[in-house]
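Quick illustration, no need to memorize.
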Amino acid sequence: MGVDRYFTSINSPKKRTNALQFLFERDRHSPLRSDSPSRRQHSVEEEMLSLISYCSFVFTFTDPLESPSQQDQKRFKLNQLHHLVKTLKKPLDDEVLVPLTSMISANLFRPLPPPSNLSFISDLPDDEGFIATASPTWIHLQVVYDILLQLVTTMDPKMLRDHINHPFLLNLLALFQSEDPRERESLKNLYHMIYLRVTFHRSFMRKSMNDVLLNYIFETERHCGIGELLEIYGSIINGFTVPLKEEHKLLLIRVLIPMHKPKGMLMYHKQLSYCVSQFVQKEPMLGGIVVRGILRYWPVTNSQKEILLIGELEELVENIDPDQYRKLALPLCTHVTRCLNSLNSQVAERALYVWNNEQFVKMVLLALDEVFPVVVEGMEKNLKRHWSSSVRQLTENVKEMLEEMDPILYYKCILEMEHRESTARKEVFKRKEKWERIESKAAKNHFR
């Protein structure tokens, strides 16, 4: 009976329930419980610190003593670290952020060779020449950029204030000198994201970019990342509010307009044109300043730049304030006429196609008396002397259009042009006779 009482007492449902509940409660409150959130967080941080320590070593990929297996191992660990940063549910504290940003700096911030003369040949990563000379360090750098972008995207900007500071941003900006277009693309996305998220650094970031662009314009004219920097600026300008601040107008006048001057403008003209057009669309009154600035930096011997600038001027005419048409008609038509008289047939044809633009024709009509003498002379000169038959044919088409605008004025301009040419021929003849008399007298005095 004693045995029976014993088994009855231990197998009692009520006793068993109380015992299990006690065990669950004790396990739930135990600091050593394996699935505790704080325990898991601590474990993840320890793993991250271990990965950060390993990834802080930088491979040169040129030292024969470096092991390819170790390089692959570092890439694997970088991907692990990226996954942890991406899936982390709680923000990182300074115990992890400090070594993490140090690791990122150690990998990214490095001396770059000066840009070579061939640095702008290709921006396409799938180019065969690029693949042959691509930097082997990119397999590590790519993941490091992804980690930093993830931090900037997900973390509270105030927590990053002490880590992404002014020196850090200047070092990032210096990396735009890289000849690897993949790195410049990653930098562009990262720098733009920092500008969007870390708002208290915006003024400093704009000033730093201005310094880079001004140094390029007036000092070196050698930089690989001008196009990417202008793409960032295009997005920034797009967000400017109207009326524009004086600081923003100075950016246009002192930086963007002089960007038309360097020889390398061909490589970034698309981005530059977009930035300038954004300003004119927001405040059409700035169109006159932009047009005069472009004419000031007009190339003398670079036909490719001329073709691009003619196209940019044509787009600007469509956006500028019509009240400025009369003031801009003569300088614009003078330059277009010089271009249609160019011996380069591509430049001449591009200038002649401008007359198909309705807004350009509308501008000319507002200042017909001033513009026609210049334009008519250019047209007649092309018809008489230009070597290209296609240019002469296009000129004939434009001439018919101009004659329809004002036949009397066109005929009057031709008469004036013929009178000037006749006067000029008479002056040449008089000058020739005068020199002949001087030479004759000099010859007589020589033989005395």
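DSSP finds 22 helices and no strands in the chain.
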